[in-house]
Specification:
The chain is α+β, with helices and mostly antiparallel strands and 200 residues long. It starts with 7 loop residues before the first helix and ends with a helix. The N terminus and C terminus are likely disordered.
């Protein structure tokens, strides 16, 4: 599923500028999500960064609105609205890096995006790493999924009991040279805008 409104260049620029030297941790690798889709027809778009120790250093990720309702464990249904994880309220790696599992929480801890990859991700990873499809039941979800957590209003009256599962996609890790070129391009563009504003 293509989403032309969000270009790779635009997301890359936002991600790289957001992970500037002023940020708490420097990103040495930018992981680009590639073709990630939910069972309800929605998509996961964006990037996240890994620092020199392979811990998460930032993210620019959004999920889009689903087209079908997701069943709730306690009855009823819920259509997930698109969620912004840019930046996430909290990020985490499950275990000591390099790892396969990454968590992103939205504002207020209302939603959690869990991404599980087939192979551990690190600064030495190059190419595409596939995501493990989601599955399981409340309290025992597996693979990759988005869960409605602690807000009963947003979660259809139930908390920690509904999720939508990722069924396809993975992550693209660029060659180091490509990442360097993107970084220079982002820096040059940012500097150009600053000069233009001063002259204006």
């Amino acid at each position: 599923m293509r989403h032309p409104g969000l270009t790779a260049a635009g997301l890359a620029l936002a991600m790289l500028c957001g992970l500037s030297p002023a940020a708490p941790a420097r990103a040495d690798v930018v992981i680009s999500l590639d073709g990630v889709e939910f069972a309800d027809g929605a998509a996961v778009l964006g990037f996240f960064g890994l620092n020199v120790s392979n811990y998460l250093s930032g993210a620019a990720i959004v999920t889009t609105t689903g087209t079908t309702a997701t069943s709730l464990a306690g009855g009823g249904s819920l259509i997930f609205a698109g969620v912004n994880y840019s930046p996430p309220l909290q990020t985490g790696t499950d275990g000591t890096p390099p790892v396969t599992d990454f968590d992103f929480d939205s504002a207020g801890y209302v939603f959690d995006l869990h991404l599980e990859f087939v192979a551990p991700l690190s600064g030495g990873t190059v190419g595409i790493d596939s995501l493990v499809p989601g599955g399981g039941t409340p309290g025992a979800y597996t693979g990759s999924y988005e869960e409605c957590e602690s807000n009963a209003t947003a979660c259809g009256g139930l908390t920690y009991q509904t999720a939508r599962f990722i069924t396809a996609g993975g992550a693209q890790v660029p060659e180091p040279a490509t990442l360097t070129i993107l970084g220079f391009a982002a820096a040059a563009s940012f500097a150009g805008r600053r000069v233009a504003r001063r002259r204006g």
